[in-house]
C-alpha cells in the first residue's frame, strides 16, 4: 500500500501557495531549454511559488535569463557536496526531471520532504516519495510534454504541444547584442562591415562533435550556402571550440566568402544566446542551439533523421520552428579518428540541400536559386 501511495497526487496541504520547487535538469543545453516550460507552468499555477533550477555549470547562465526561474544552482560533481547544497537550499518539492541515481540519492540523503521522479527507474522506488509513470518515448509525445508530466502530482496538466511556445519567456541579456555583430568584442572584430548591407542573417550550427544526434553532411551546408543569392543572406557558421577540427572543410571552403562568417568557438553561451536572438534564422540538426533558437522565437529549421519517434520527440517547438525529416531508412552514422570525423547516416544524406534552401528562402519571400 505504501508503494501505491507514491503514485497518488500530492495532498492539498503540500501544495500551499508559496512553495519552493526545485527542477533538477543537469544534462545538456538542449535538455535544459526543453525543460524551461515547466517553470512557466509552475508560475501560472502558483505565481507565489519559488522556482529553483538545478543544472550543470555549462548551462546555468542560460537558465538565469529565464524570468520564470527565481534561483539557479550548478550541481556539484561530488555526491556529498550535492547533498549539502540541497540541504542548504531546502526546496519543499524536488523534481528529478532527468532520471539520475546521483540526484535521487542526494535528494534522499538531504531529507527533502517531497521527492518526485520517474516510476521506471528502480532506484527511485525507495528514494522518491512520489513516482510518475512517464510515457514511453514511442508515445508520440514531444519531450517537452514528457517533462511536463512530472508536474502531474502537483495538479498541473499540459497535454497540448501548441501550448508550449507560449510557455517560453527567455530574455536575452540586455545590450549584449544590439546588432548581430555586437554579441561580443570577438564577434564584432570579425567582419563588421558585412552586417551593414541589408542581408538577412542565418546561423548554421552543424555541431558534428558535441551533438549526439544524426547530422547533415558538411558538404550539404556548402551547397545550401551556394544555392542562395549571396546578396540576400549572410551566414554564420557556429559551434563550440571542440567542433572546429571537424568543421574545417566547411570553414576553409568559405574562408574568403563575403557573406560567410566563422563564429566557431568565439562566443560564450550567454553571448551566443544574445547573438541568436538578433539573427533572422537558424538551420541545424537536433542540437541545443536548435531548441534555443526556437524558444527565442526566430525562424528555426531542424534537420532530422527518418525515425518518426525521434522527430516527434525532439522536434523544436516555437512560433516559427519547423522540421524537415528524411524518408530513407536510418542505418546509423559512423565516427572515425576518435570522433573527429563523421560518416553521415544515409537517411540524413537523403535530405536535399535544394529543399532546405527553398525553405530558407520561404522565410524571407526570396526568389529562386541565383544565376
UniProtKB/TrEMBL annotation:
One of its GO terms (cellular component) is cytosol. GO terms for biological process: lipopolysaccharide core region biosynthetic process. SUPFAM superfamilies: UDP-Glycosyltransferase/glycogen phosphorylase (SSF53756). Gene3D superfamilies: Glycogen Phosphorylase B (3.40.50.2000). InterPro entries: Glyco_trans_9 (IPR002201), LPS_LOS_Heptosyltrfase (IPR051199). PANTHER family: TETRAACYLDISACCHARIDE 4'-KINASE-RELATED. It comes from Duganella fentianensis. Keywords: Glycosyltransferase, Transferase. This is Glycosyltransferase family 9 protein. The keyword Glycosyltransferase applies. It comes from the Bacteria. Pfam families: Glyco_transf_9. GO terms for molecular function: ADP-heptose-lipopolysaccharide heptosyltransferase activity.
